[in-house]
Amino acid sequence: MRIVDAKVIVTCPGRNFVTLKIVTDQGVHGIGDATLNGREQAVVAYLNEHVVPLLIGRDPRKIEDTWQFLYRGAYWRRGPVTMRAIAAVDVALWDIKAKMAGLPLYDMLGGKSREGVLVYGHANGGDIAETLDEVERYIGLGYKAVRAQSGIPGVDKAYGVGRGQMYYEPADATLPTETVWSTSKYLNHAPKLFDALRERVGFGVELLHDAHHRLTPMEAARLGRSLEPYNLFWLEDVTPAENQEAFRLIRQHTTTPLAVGEIFNTIWDCKDLLQEQLIDFIRATIVGAGGITHLRRIADFASVWQIRTGCHGATDLSPVTMGAALHFDSWVPNFGIQEYMRHSPETDAVFPHAYRFEDGLLFPGETPGHGVDIDEALAAKYPYEPKQLPVARLEDGTMWNW
């Protein structure tokens, strides 16, 4: 059994996606996601120029060897571009292996650990009143967990507040939109949001919140402590995690559960966080952290310290990653929760999939493989559109973390 073809498909049904399709000499194909929001063409070039030529003639069943070949063989290891390219290959090969066995992917990983995957949706509003209404709407849709974000008085274009309902895509312009940020205004406002939410919806629904890397460690500690009365499921990305030791300071001052990892690329990005029990949920993704093969290692390492998974699942990941993640989530013993930001109808049409939402849970389906495919003819009708993520500055003009 050999790989006879591999091609990169770029499509933009409302936002850009990069998909790798691998075909074998037995006519079986698999697909993987390689999307890197705002930097898609960098991964396209990496795949086309450096990875695809290496795949032709290889045995698709040798997933581990191929992963090591692409990781070790590049010499220049890690990084978002390299690891997304490796992830696309890895997921496509797992897709092929499961299809050849006639099994859903979770059975290839060891079988289900749960019947459904708990997910959380995104509720946001221009102010607290709008966010409260949106949280209630998500609860009405069946969600048992909701991430809540609100506009902040005096802060224009606050992170997490989308331009519409259900579908939120922050990459909005050919050149980055510049936004202004005020940490002091945010720290004063966030507790008011969750105080109002608990007053409105009680404690029967899980609430989550994303600080999006914008705080210093001590500011993060202050926020975590101020939110303790509201019993958050987690507080996400409170400070940039390049300095893993920063979480020691935060941990000393708050018992609010901490989650981080959507921008991590390898186990080395979270090694200290995990083994020192500085976080409660690891949010590394299949597409960002080198595929199923490597994310399994991260999850197993985390399980030693009772740290659970909480994979990133925003619309900057295609339905291919969502489908693969749901099979991973169904298997992984130390599962916590899965982010679920719904894709647009146009995206769902380009990527027909077996997974479904019901009563606050996602189910991966029973289709052999990861259950997601691509309609190439329809994908071709949505050409690539250059779009970048916004940037943020403090009120004095200093560049900050978006």
What does it look like?
With 402 residues, this protein is an alpha/beta fold. The protein is 36% helix and 17% strand. The protein contains 13 helices and 16 strands. The protein has helices spanning 40-55, 63-73, 80-101, 105-109, 128-140, 183-201, 217-226, 246-253, 271-275, 291-303, 319-331, 345-350, 376-379; strands at residues 3-11, 17-24, 29-33, 117-125, 145-150, 178-181, 206-210, 234-236, 258-260, 281-282, 308-309, 338-339, 356-358, 361-363, 391-394, 399-400. The strands form three sheets. Strands 4, 5, 7, 8, 9, 10, 11, 12, 13 and 14 form a ten-stranded mixed β-sheet that branches. The longest helix is centred in the N-terminal third of the chain and has 22 residues, at 80-101. The mean pLDDT is 96.
Protein topology:
Elements: E1 3-11, E2 17-24, E3 29-33, H1 40-55, H2 63-73, H3 80-101, H4 105-109, E4 117-125, H5 128-140, E5 145-150, E6 178-181, H6 183-201, E7 206-210, H7 217-226, E8 234-236, H8 246-253, E9 258-260, H9 271-275, E10 281-282, H10 291-303, E11 308-309, H11 319-331, E12 338-339, H12 345-350, E13 356-358, E14 361-363, H13 376-379, E15 391-394, E16 399-400
Parallel strand pairs: 4-5, 4-12, 5-7, 6-15, 7-8, 8-9, 9-10, 10-11
Antiparallel strand pairs: 1-2, 2-3, 4-14, 13-14, 15-16
Helix pairs in contact: 1-3, 2-3, 5-6, 6-7, 7-8
| Helix vs. strand class | alpha/beta
Q: What percentage of residues falls in helices of 4 or more residues?
A: 25-40%
Dominant shape: globular
Largest sheet: 10 strands, mixed
Strand content: 15-25%
Taking all Cα atoms into account, the compactness measure Rg is 20 Å
Distance between the termini: 46 Å
Total E-strand runs: 16
Output the helix-strand order: EEEHHHHEHEEHEHEHEHEHEHEHEEHEE
In round numbers, the mean pLDDT is 96
Number of helical elements? 13
Unreliable spans are: none
